[in-house]
Specification:
By secondary structure, the protein is of the alpha/beta class. It is 47% helix and 18% strand. It catalyses: hydroxymethylbilane = uroporphyrinogen III + H2O.
Length: 244
């Protein structure tokens, strides 16, 4: 998408993920009768399930009965990337146009009755409390299970240093998560020096934009929805404004 605007993108991995509690996750997935449905706000939660399903016995149980039983219940998702992974394990996603946890929480509340069975919510250790809080206030029970931890990618500092030494100061830097801001900012400030004011900083969505503002980064653009098309259009607009 950025190439369509004649912009060249360099992708620098910021995060590493370690999967945990996978036995507990599959144990809970083995009892659909205990839950009102599933909630996913991250592709990593689906990756955790896919790791569980690599074991033949688990995969057999999933294919033979668990998948069909979960399919009688909703699987709520926050965006398209998560939705496509839900489809890969054979479930039907709902709410993918939400785009963030706040909107997904509203969507779930509009469709579910209070005091229903709990929803199973496999999530990361750094999850925000927005979705659990909204559902709790509306009387919709949520059972969170931490299935991955987020750490800084081992090559992050080296990748950033290498980029700045070879390519110079970038026209724009895009952040895709609050943890991305947390792990990158110090390195970017050091490498940019006084030229940091020349960089247009972009956010994939409002949650990341909030984290950037809290860290003192001026946000030049926030994608209207978290898609490559909207992000590319937003960056192009921010860079055009700079040049006029």
């Amino acid at each position: 998408e950025l190439g369509l605007y004649e912009l060249e993108a360099t992708l620098i991995p910021v995060l590493s993920f370690e999967f945990i509690s996978l036995e507990s996750l599959f144990e809970k997935l083995s009892h659909p009768e205990c839950y009102g449905g599933l909630v996913f706000t991250s592709p990593r939660a689906l990756e955790a399930i896919k790791i569980c399903l690599k074991e033949n016995s688990n995969n057999d149980a999933w294919s033979k009965s668990l998948k069909q039983r979960w399919n009688t219940k909703p699987a709520y998702v926050v965006g398209k990337a998560t939705a496509s992974l839900v489809e890969e394990i054979g479930l039907t996603p709902q709410g993918e146009k939400s785009g963030n946890a706040e909107k997904l929480a509203e969507y779930i509340c509009s469709r579910e009755k209070p005091n229903s069975s709990a929803f199973l919510f496999p999530c990361g250790a750094l999850k925000r409390e927005v979705l659990p809080t909204v559902l709790r206030e509306k009387g919709i029970p949520l059972e969170s299970l931490t299935v991955y931890q987020t750490t800084q990618h081992t090559d992050l500092q080296e990748s950033l240093s290498s980029y700045f030494s070879q390519q110079g100061i970038p026209a724009s830097i895009v952040f895709f998560s609050p943890s991305g801001v947390k792990f990158c900012l110090q390195h970017i400030q050091k490498l940019s020096g006084d030229f940091i004011n020349h960089i247009k900083f972009a956010a994939i969505g409002p949650t990341t934009a909030e984290a950037m503002e809290a860290a003192g980064i001026p946000v030049s653009c926030t994608a209207e929805s978290p898609t490559p098309q909207d992000l590319a259009a937003g960056i192009q607009k921010a860079l055009q404004l700079q040049n006029c």
